[in-house]
Design brief:
Distance between the termini: 22 Å
Number of strands: 8
Radius of gyration: 17 Å
Shape: globular
Number of domains: 1
CATH superfamily: Aldolase class I
Largest sheet: 8 strands, parallel, barrel
Number of helices: 11
Helix content: 40-55%
Strand content: 15-25%
Length: 256
Amino acid sequence: MPSLGVNIDHVATVRQARMTTEPDPIWAATLAELGGADGITLHLREDRRHIQDRDLHLLGQTVAVKLNLELACNQEVLDIACQARPYQATLVPEHRAEVTTEGGLDVVGQPRRVTDAIERLQDAGILVSLFLDPDQAQIEAGVETGATAIELHTGAYANATAKFSGDEELQTLLQASHWIHGAGLTVHAGHGLTYRNVRPVAELPHMHELNIGHSIISRAIMVGLEQAVRDMKQLIGGTVACQGVGDKGGTACPPA
């Protein structure tokens, strides 16, 4: 059973929409832990569109499970990460115009920059994961950087399952998981995973960690965050949390 990292960025997105103090992602992290989250994931972007420095600082003091910080290979944010010292850092690409992270990190095109960032983080005692497309060249380049884990970008699979397909993309993820595990790295996955499509990814061999945000926060609006996390934990553990979840057909659960 893979562990579940709950991404709380979208809680901060709602807060920043009004530039106020609520909802507080610190409170959200506590509720996610009560629901069974194995980790809390947050992305400190260069433009600070959602998570703020204050959030990272307080979460580092209060989170009892693993704290996974997503960040770009940006010197300012790397400095902050090395000072905050989360349990894990996941290096991701970052573009100002994107709504959310689209596509994996290009290690092939910037191996030195990525390796330097990894070395800085590791010198601070932080485990490092790379967010990569399930592409052999990128994975092989990622292995050479010295990272501990690779998180597979599951966006193509998620987009396909929205149209009730996805078998081909799932096979691509399967092959990629074998490449990563065979190289001695830990396999993670995330992006676009929902209550309807997560089971096949959770059941991939060698899958160690799933990071999920939008779908959980969306469901939390309907049922509460603690329950939404508990439902996802049951799904990735092989127990259907509510009627129809994970099936290709209809579902009796709220949309997520």
